[in-house]
C-alpha cells in the first residue's frame, strides 16, 4: 500500500483502504438524504429518462431529484411534465455543454450536497446514503463516486469510472478495472474505500461548499475530462476525492457521444493537454508536457495508419485549439492554488500508462503495482 492511500494530504489518518467490502455507512448520520440534490443534466435524453428516472426516484432516499434540461429538441420536457411531475425541472436557454450546463444549473440549487448523475445511469437500492454519509463523517472528503458497472453486462466494470479514477505522471487517465479498452470482471476486488485521483462525472457526489469554492467545472472544457480537472483542483486545494465500493450504479456509457466519435477524440486530446498544463506542479510541467506532445503525435499517426482519418484530424485540431487558447490556459494556471507534485497526490501512477499497457503488456490494474 502506498503511503498516500493511508494518509490524507495533510498527514491525518484516513480509514484503511482494503480489498474487503467496506462497512455500511448508514447509522446515526441523519434519517434520510434530504440534504442531497440529485441533478441530471439532460440533452435529448428522453429515452434514458423514460428508462432510468423511475429508478432514481424510487431509490432517492429523500433527496431532491432535479432535471436540468440543456435546451433539448426531443420530447424530454414534455415527458417530464406529463410523467414525472415530482421531478424539479430547470430549463437552460441553450445547449451549454456538460460543464457550463452544470455550473448554471447548480447555481440555482440550494443543498448541502450535489449528485451529478448522467441520464444513462441505472441506480440501485441503497446507492446514495453510503456516499452521503462518507462525506458527512469525513469533512476533508469533498467528492466521492460509487462503483461503476456496465449496464449492458453488470458482471464487468464500465469504461467511465469503473473502480475509481487514476492518472499517470503525464495526466493520462485510467481506472481500477479499466486500462484503455480492457475492462475487468467485477470479482469484488474493488469493494473497498480509498482516495483516488479523480471520481467520475457519471455519478459524482460533491460537497456544495467545495463546488462553490472552486467555481464548479472548467467551462472551456465543454465536456469530457472536466471531472478530472475538478478533482485535481480539489486535491490542490487540500481536499480529498474518494471511491466507495460499497455503493454500485450501472452506466450505459456513450449515451450522448460514443467514445469512438471524432468529436470525443478532439475533446479528450484538447482537454487532456489543458488538464496537464493547468494543474501540474511547476517543476514537473515542462518534461511532462513534452512527453505528452510526443505520445499524442504517436496516437495521431496510429489513427492515420488504421485509416481513421477523422480521428487523426481530431488530434490535430485538438492541438491547434490548445495552442490558440494558450493565453487563457496560462491565466487559469496562474490563478490556481499551489500545485501538488506527483508523489503528493493519491491515485497517480509514477510511470507512463501508455508504455505499461502497449509496450509491457500490462492489461490489468493489479499488474501496475499500485
Automatic annotation (TrEMBL):
Gene3D superfamilies: Spore Coat Polysaccharide Biosynthesis Protein SpsA, Chain A (3.90.550.10). Keywords: Glycosyltransferase, Transferase. InterPro entries: Glyco_trans_2-like (IPR001173), Nucleotide-diphossugar_trans (IPR029044). Residues 38-146 form the Glycosyltransferase 2-like domain. The keyword Transferase applies. Residues 1-22 are annotated as: Disordered. Coiled coil: none annotated. Belongs to the glycosyltransferase 2 family. This is Glycosyltransferase family 2 protein. It comes from Hymenobacter saemangeumensis.
Amino acid at each position: 500500500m502506498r503511503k498516500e492511500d493511508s494518509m490524507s494530504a495533510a498527514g491525518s489518518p484516513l480509514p484503511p483502504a482494503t480489498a474487503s467490502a467496506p462497512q455500511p455507512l448508514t447509522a446515526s448520520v441523519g434519517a434520510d438524504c434530504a440534504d442531497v440534490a440529485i441533478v441530471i443534466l439532460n440533452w435529448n435524453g428522453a429515452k434514458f429518462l423514460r428508462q432510468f428516472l423511475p429508478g432514481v426516484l424510487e431509490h432517492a432516499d429523500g433527496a431532491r431529484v432535479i432535471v436540468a434540461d440543456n435546451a433539448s429538441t426531443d420530447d424530454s420536457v414534455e415527458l417530464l411534465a406529463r410523467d414525472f411531475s415530482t421531478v424539479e425541472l430547470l430549463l437552460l436557454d441553450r445547449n451549454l455543454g456538460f460543464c457550463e450546463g452544470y455550473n448554471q444549473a447548480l447555481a440555482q440549487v440550494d443543498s448541502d450536497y450535489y449528485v451529478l448523475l448522467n441520464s444513462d445511469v441505472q441506480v440501485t437500492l441503497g446507492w446514495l446514503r453510503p456516499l452521503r454519509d462518507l462525506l458527512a463523517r469525513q469533512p476533508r472528503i469533498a467528492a466521492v463516486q460509487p462503483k461503476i458497472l456496465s449496464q449492458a453486462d453488470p458482471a464487468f466494470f464500465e469504461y467511465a469510472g469503473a473502480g475509481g479514477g487514476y492518472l499517470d505522471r503525464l495526466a493520462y487517465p485510467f481506472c481500477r478495472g479499466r486500462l484503455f479498452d480492457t475492462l475487468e470482471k467485477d470479482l469484488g476486488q474493488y469493494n473497498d474505500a480509498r482516495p483516488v485521483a479523480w471520481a467520475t462525472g457519471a455519478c459524482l457526489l460533491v460537497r456544495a461548499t467545495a463546488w462553490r469554492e472552486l467555481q464548479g467545472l472548467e467551462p472551456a472544457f465543454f465536456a469530457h475530462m472536466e471531472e478530472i480537472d475538478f478533482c485535481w483542483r480539489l486535491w490542490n486545494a487540500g481536499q480529498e476525492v474518494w471511491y466507495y465500493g460499497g455503493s454500485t450504479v450501472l452506466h450505459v456509457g456513450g449515451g450522448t457521444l460514443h467514445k469512438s466519435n471524432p468529436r470525443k477524440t478532439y475533446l479528450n486530446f484538447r482537454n487532456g493537454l489543458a488538464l496537464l498544463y493547468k494543474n501540474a506542479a511547476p517543476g514537473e510541467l515542462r518534461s511532462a508536457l513534452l512527453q505528452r506532445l510526443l505520445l499524442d503525435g504517436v496516437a495521431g499517426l496510429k489513427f492515420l495508419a488504421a485509416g481513421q482519418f477523422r480521428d487523426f484530424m481530431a488530434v490535430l485540431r485538438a492541438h491547434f485549439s490548445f495552442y490558440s487558447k494558450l493565453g487563457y490556459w496560462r491565466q487559469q494556471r496562474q490563478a490556481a492554488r499551489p500545485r501538488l507534485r506527483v508523489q503528493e497526490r493519491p491515485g497517480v501512477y509514477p510511470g507512463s500508462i501508455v508504455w505499461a499497457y502497449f509496450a509491457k503488456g500490462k492489461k490489468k490494474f493489479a499488474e501496475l503495482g499500485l
